[in-house]
Amino acid sequence: MSVIGSTFRSVLSASNLSKSIINKRAALTGKSTTTSSDIFNKNKQVLNRICQPSRAASSGTAAAGVPESPPMICRPCQPSDRDAMIDFMSTRFVTREPLMKAIGATPSNSSLFVEHCIDESIIQGASFLALDSETGKICGVRLNGVGPPSPLEKECDFGTTINAIPKFLDDVEGDMATLLNTDQFMRHIAICVEQSSSQCGIATQLMIMSVQFAKREQLKHLTAMCSWSLPYKLSLKMGFKVVREIS
């Protein structure tokens, strides 16, 4: 993996978000015997209460050289968004993200992994998306998980090309639960914004909603593994600190 041109950075929020830890480990880490729909339905009222859709509109006075943001709505991801999210992440994230590009990932050979990540994020109820309020189309997705990824993820067969991804990410992040002394933390999985809407504040709004969710759920930390400069800079801007860096 040393051939990858960009620097991979694992960043961690320095400040505790709360002194208490949520008591939802079984439901949020997939260790419960309940079904995916049961978990989502249980969390849906919480999401609706603490994460009301956020509406943002363009001011119409964009600075020179800065794209003007389309009117958009940011809200929690729902099961009904699954197909649109898979299409968006497959055609935007997979084709642009440095690690995916370095190993030759395509929408076709990465489909199982993309579906897995989206399904897990929807089940845990901690992910958000931005919609163009005029067209209803997705213009940004922020995938989050709660707690460390399941050890079974490294054993799943996502195909010859993609199987290296979970192993590599695990090697980079290390045992974050031990480092934090808790498994109740928000883990950033991926963020992707429509290229034509980049640098319009969409990623920042999705980050803010993620932080608000973590605070309300009394999660003590947020972590992120950044493989390109924009999310890395955004994380630093939001108060994250670097704990591991791999060139």
Secondary-structure element pattern, one letter each = EHHEEHHHEEHHEHEHE
**Strand order in the largest sheet:** 2-3-4-5-6-7-1-8
CATH homologous superfamily (4th level) name: Gcn5-related N-acetyltransferase (GNAT)
Total tally of structural domains: 1
Given the C-alpha coordinates, what overall shape results? globular
Mean pLDDT: 75
What is the number of strand segments?
8
Q: What is the helical fraction, as a range of percent?
A: 25-40%
Low-pLDDT residue spans: 1-52, 56-64
CATH fold description: Aminopeptidase
Architecture (CATH level 2) name: 3-Layer(aba) Sandwich
Instruction: Output the radius of gyration.
Output: 17 Å
The level-1 CATH class: Alpha Beta
What structural class should be given to the helix and strand makeup?
alpha+beta
First-last Cα distance: 10 Å
Proportion of β residues?
A: 15-25%
Q: For the report, how would you describe the main beta sheet?
A: 8 strands, mixed
GO molecular function, one term: N-acetyltransferase activity
Protein name: N-acetyltransferase domain-containing protein
Provide a quick synopsis of the model.
This protein is an alpha+beta fold and 247 residues long. The protein has nine helices and eight strands.
Written account of the structure:
This is N-acetyltransferase domain-containing protein. Helices cover 36% and strands 19% of the residues. Strands 2-3-4-5-6-7-1-8 form an eight-stranded mixed β-sheet, with helices on both faces. With 247 residues, it is an alpha+beta fold. α3 (82-93) packs across α5.
